[in-house]
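Final report, Chapter 2: Outcomes

The project's central promise was a pipeline that accepts a single protein chain and returns its three-dimensional structure in a standardized token representation, suitable for archiving and comparison. That pipeline is now operational. To close this chapter, we reproduce one record exactly as it appears in the project archive, with the input sequence first and the structure output second.
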Amino acid sequence: MINIGDIVISIMGHDRGEYYLVLDCDNDFVYLADGRLKTVNKPKKKNKKHISRLGKCDEFIDIKNSGDNFNDAKLKYLLKNWRNRCLNQTL
């Protein structure tokens, strides 16, 4: 089950291997952003079948609940930290 605030990786399409944050969900699609090419204001619409869930981004939920302005710079920072944690765990 994929929810808002999840970190996902694309497993299909030209963006395969890219990390994204789920900003919104509906029945068949999710809306993803990476802070670079797909921004918070213009997220990518992607089929749920074409992504794989990696985990929950608690920092995003905290920022969203506190009422702080969530922007692309914060998103890039969160994804960078997530990638580094994943790489360190596999080494």
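Archive annotation: The chain is about 30% helix and 30% strand.
This record, like all others produced under the grant, will remain available to the consortium after the project formally closes.
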